[in-house]
Amino acid sequence: TGYITLDRGFKNTGSTSSSITFLDGEKGILRYRGYSIEDLAENASFLEVSYLLIYGELPDKTALESYKKEITYHTLIHEDIKNIIDGFPSNSHPMGVLCSLVSSLTAFYPESLDPNRSANEVDQTVKRLIAKMPTMAAWAYKNKVGHRANYPDNSLDYCSNFLKMMFAVPSEEYEVDPVIANALDKLLILHADHEQNCSTATVRVVGSSHASLYASISAGISALWGPLHGGANQAVIEMLEAIQADGGDVQKYMAKAKDKDDPFRLMGFGHRVYKNFDPRAKIIKKAADEVLAKLGIDDPILEIAKGLEEVALNDEYFIERKLYPNVDFYSGIIYRAIGIPTSMFTVMFALGRLPGWIAQWKEMRLQNEPIGRPRQVYTGEVKREFKTIEER
Ligand code: CMC
């Protein structure tokens, strides 16, 4: 069986070659298909970025128009999916509902199960998923709050349509605030891909068995949910709220984070790859200031976050271990400011990461990658004699 190298958590193991996302953790550089995250967040729209990730090039005007048209065409979801949502208790976490709904698409589009489909057929599946995720996400939320679901409004752009499905109620006029839609669009761009992170690696491994795109993405959503990964954005706000409720003493929580007997970690700090700063966190911090100013919101949680960051950046323990604020540290503050409830934060991350997952899944199939199947070092009993139940 040969010699096996053990690398728990794959800290030093490359699982694939990829031409999608470049990440330099020492220098804090992140580029999608060669374009810097700063340029894309400043100048592109989320749909343009999704096109870039999935097809490899920024779209020209005609390509973008036809892409938008196709996405818009598929925003509606089957009424039976509503019945599935109705079957969930209203206190269900929307991430659980979302990954179930994405998996359920395999039943509504069984042709997606065929691993030998043409590129055009796969492309249909891809566009359906990008179009339907916001609808499913908003409907999961409506179920949670016990409100009637809103149908997509195809006259609106991707983020505005999502916001309207989330927040419009039949008794009131709802006008999408462009400041809010733009802030959301930027956040989605910053989350769109991040090479072989836990959820993306999951999508690729699941897809490597030739499971369908929907099944693979559903698995990715589950992986993202955990608090060490995408679930950190919810955990950060809950932590900041707890610090606030506890009198705002950031030093007390710093001490907890450093205490090896305490499982508490400073949520939104640290990263497997970034060891100087997370370029996404830099952009988001600035955006949080801008969005709160534009919306005239004074959020005491932002002050606590800044206080915590300052203390952490000057702390020996954090300096030694190169722990810096990551993408999740400030994103929740913007989500809060634009009215997204805390339980939906990780769903927002999933909406943003979707094009990255899709691009990585496609690349994995196009590169004809072998099934993902790591080895192990066995540490159990060598060989034992079977004992009857009376003898045990
Ligand atoms: N608070 C306190 N100590 C920490 C933290 C933290 N947030 N993060 C890492 N450490 C310590 C850890 O205890 C270890 O110390 P020691 O060397 O004394 O044992 C050292 O720093 C290295 O940590 P690690 O857990 O071995 O590093 P990792 O690369 O396996 O984990 C991480 C990376 C992101 C899971 C981790 O930093 C963490 O749990 N952070 C908090 C959760 C979080 O914010 N996650 C979001 C990550 S970014 C976006 C995303 O993936 O969604």
From TrEMBL:
CDD domains: EcCS_like (cd06114). This is Citrate synthase. Belongs to the citrate synthase family. Keywords: Transferase, Tricarboxylic acid cycle. Pfam families: Citrate_synt (PF00285). Transmembrane segments: none annotated. SUPFAM superfamilies: Citrate synthase. GO terms for molecular function: citrate synthase activity. InterPro entries: Citrate_synth-like_lrg_a-sub, Citrate_synth-like_sm_a-sub, Citrate_synthase, Citrate_synthase_AS, Citrate_synthase_bac-typ, Citrate_synthase_sf, Citrate_synthase_typ-I. GO terms for cellular component: cytoplasm. One of its GO terms (biological process) is tricarboxylic acid cycle. The active site is at residues 271, 328. Signal peptide: none annotated. It comes from Psychroflexus torquis (strain ATCC 700755 / CIP 106069 / ACAM 623). Pathway: Carbohydrate metabolism; tricarboxylic acid cycle; isocitrate from oxaloacetate: step 1/2. It catalyses: oxaloacetate + acetyl-CoA + H2O = citrate + CoA + H(+).
